[in-house]
Design goal:
Blueprint lengths: L24 E7 L6 H10 L5 H14 L1 E8 H17 L5 E6 L2
Antiparallel strand pairs: 1-2, 1-3
Helix pairs in contact: 1-2
Length: about 100
């Protein structure tokens, strides 16, 4: 059998950079309560959010004094994962620490 060559015209479709949009971002918030220790909040900020001790302490004080603090800003999927990890750590250590997502405007 002979091989036949067929002419296939291929077009590459590209989107201009203007058509692409960055995914929306969400703030991960930690909320104050009367039971979770300050040390535990600092530990969460260091281990889950990769903050150094100084930054973690600053955020923890915002949580304590203002009722909430921003632990980080992420895409929805990453933020949801961080919230779940915080809640799992808090339950494991018997703390009622609340963590939530808020869309960045």
């Amino acid at each position: 059998m002979g091989k036949t060559k067929s002419d296939h015209h291929q077009e590459t479709l590209t989107k201009s950079r203007e058509d692409l949009q960055e995914p929306p971002l969400f703030k991960v918030l930690l909320h104050n309560d009367d039971y979770t220790t300050m040390d535990f909040v600092v530990t969460v900020l260091e281990n889950v959010f990769g903050k150094d001790t100084t930054e973690a302490t600053r955020i923890m004080l915002n949580v304590h004094h203002q009722g909430h603090g921003v632990a980080g800003v992420y895409t929805r999927e990453i933020g949801e994962t961080k919230v779940a990890v915080v809640h799992r750590m808090a339950r494991k250590n018997q703390f009622p620490l609340k963590c939530s997502l808020e869309k960045v405007n």
